[in-house]
């Protein structure tokens, strides 16, 4: 018996940091939503008692460094499972992009192994386990749209954003989340208004959502990698209604409600950037079923 799970990428519509905690993490307020660019995860039982990672993507580690491996090890040890598992990862999400690819793979493994080993755990229980692997894994267990607080692991469901096209453009640089956070000076932060973004989502206001997007990590990554600013400028020139970097970057996303304009932005950006995608927001949690 094998189980297939979709592992969608996320974007941060808002990312605010409140203060640095004594454990070294930042207390955050983030509005996250999944998009239909997804890895495909397949979990199947092995006769030998081992965790085997299989992926054709050369940027994805096939050992304990893989977040999918860590998820399998955690659930296996917690519930004293003696059976081994092969985890096949078909990678579609660019790696180290600010799109939570690794976190979403880990979340998909938790969901998949819950089924394979008939553990009958709730999403809440899986999300608590996910937080041990990384700050974004809990959100990825649920998918959909949510307010994430704490260091990112406290999840509160929000209404789906108004329908629109999302153009993703990833420059050919990798960004370390840790480095970006290390360079953040909390005294110089221009805070987005997360409450007004939540209100815009409740009001189903596309204009409100575009107005309130903001990410305190964006200026840090731009300072380290000025090409992010260039991509932002191009997206605006080609007609995106709102443009923001996702997470710690370097992927930039642009929003539009018009399909022809989305295509124009996509075509225009392909001249500057190798990895460009047109996607839709998945909206609500049920899209993972
Ligand atoms: C910034 C965000 C926004 O969605 O996304 P990405 O750019 O990684 O996609 C995430 O919160 C990233 O989550 P994740 O990638 O799971 O990070 P973790 O492994 O937990 O943390 C990596 C490092 O980032 C810093 N970190 C992370 C989260 C947080 N709230 N405060 C922090 O200071 C810490 O230095 C930590 O050691
Ligand atoms: N399953 C995985 N897919 C992608 N990257 C992974 C995975 N497991 C571990 N990693 C490592 O995690 C780091 C961050 O990757 P990723 O999750 O794609 O980015 P981000 O945290 O920016 O959203 C990379 O350096 C990569 O080597």
* CATH fold topology of the largest domain: Ribosomal Protein S5, domain 2
Count of the separate structural domains: 2
Q: Counting H and I runs of at least 4 residues, what is the number of helices? A: 10
Ligands, deduplicated: 4-diphosphocytidyl-2-C-methyl-D-erythritol 2-phosphate, adenosine-5'-diphosphate
The end-to-end distance, rounded to whole angstroms, is 18 Å
Task: Give the helix level as a range of percent.
Answer: 25-40%
Global outline: globular
CATH architecture title of the largest domain = 2-Layer Sandwich
Structural class by SSE content: alpha+beta
Mean pLDDT: 96
Strand content: 25-35%
Largest sheet: number of strands, sense, barrel closure: 7 strands, mixed
Order of helices and strands: EEEHEHHHEEEHHHEHHEEHE
CATH top-level class of the largest domain: Alpha Beta
Poorly predicted segments: none
**Tally of strands:** 11
Please identify the oligomeric state.
Answer: single chain
Computed CA radius of gyration, to the nearest angstrom: 19 Å
Structure, described:
- The protein is 33% helix and 29% strand.
- By secondary structure, it is an alpha+beta fold.
- It folds into two domains: 3-158, Ribosomal Protein S5, domain 2, CATH 3.30.230; 165-286, Alpha-Beta Plaits.
- Strand 1 (3-20) and strand 2 form a beta hairpin.
- Its EC number is 2.7.1.148.
């Amino acid at each position: 018996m094998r189980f297939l799970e979709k592992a969608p990428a996320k974007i941060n519509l808002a990312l605010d940091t409140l203060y640095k905690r004594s454990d070294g993490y930042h207390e955050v307020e983030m509005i996250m939503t999944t998009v239909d660019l997804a890895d495909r995860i397949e979990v199947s039982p092995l006769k030998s008692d081992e965790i085997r990672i299989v992926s054709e993507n050369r940027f994805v580690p096939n050992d304990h460094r893989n977040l999918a491996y860590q998820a399998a090890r955690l659930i296996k040890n917690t519930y004293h499972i003696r059976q081994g598992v092969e985890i096949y990862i078909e990678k579609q999400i660019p790696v180290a992009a600010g799109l939570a690819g690794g976190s979403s793979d880990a979340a998909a493994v938790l969901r998949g192994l819950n089924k394979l080993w008939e553990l009958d755990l709730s999403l809440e229980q899986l999300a608590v386990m996910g937080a041990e692997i990384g700050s974004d894994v809990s959100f990825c267990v649920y998918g959909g749209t949510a307010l994430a607080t704490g260091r990112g692991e406290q999840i509160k469901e929000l209404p789906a954003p108004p329908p629109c096209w999302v153009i993703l453009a990833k420059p050919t640089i990798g960004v370390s989340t840790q480095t970006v956070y290390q360079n953040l000076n909390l005294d110089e932060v221009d805070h987005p208004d997360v409450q007004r973004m939540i209100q815009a989502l409740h009001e189903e206001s596309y204009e409100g959502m575009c107005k309130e997007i903001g990410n305190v990590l964006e200026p840090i990554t731009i300072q380290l990698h000025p090409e992010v600013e260039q991509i932002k400028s191009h997206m605006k020139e080609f007609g995106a209604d709102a443009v923001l970097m996702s997470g710690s970057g370097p992927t930039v996303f642009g929003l539009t409600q018009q399909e022809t304009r989305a295509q124009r932005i996509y075509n225009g950006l392909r001249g500057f950037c190798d990895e460009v995608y047109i996607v839709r927001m998945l909206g609500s949690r049920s899209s993972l079923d």
